[in-house]
Amino acid sequence: MPSSSARMPGRTRDAGRTEFGPRDVRVTNIEPGLTRTELASHIEKDTLREFVEGMADTMGSLSSEEVADVVAYVSSRPRHVNLRQIMVLPTRQA
């Protein structure tokens, strides 16, 4: 069973939906998979940086524009539609 701290983000989102839903505020959890950003260049350990870059080369990665497109899609839904959770992954990422 997960610890209570592991469940907290979900409970926080649910509380946000409960509190803000009646005011037509939507809360969506977007979970992107491997996304190519400048983050890898900030990894100081060479082996870890090479591992992350190798993962991106092997299974592909999303671009920041692709993730932004998902955000735009979510926010363009009609006001009465709330997408609770979206996972967007490179096709090869299981």
UniProtKB/TrEMBL annotation:
Signal peptide: none
Residue stretches of biased makeup (Basic and acidic residues): 11-25
SUPFAM superfamilies according to UniProt: NAD(P)-binding Rossmann-fold domains
InterPro entries found in the cross-reference section: NAD(P)-bd_dom_sf, SDR_fam
Region feature (Disordered): 1-25
Protein name: SDR family oxidoreductase
Phylogenetic lineage: Bacteria, Bacillati, Actinomycetota, Actinomycetes, Kitasatosporales
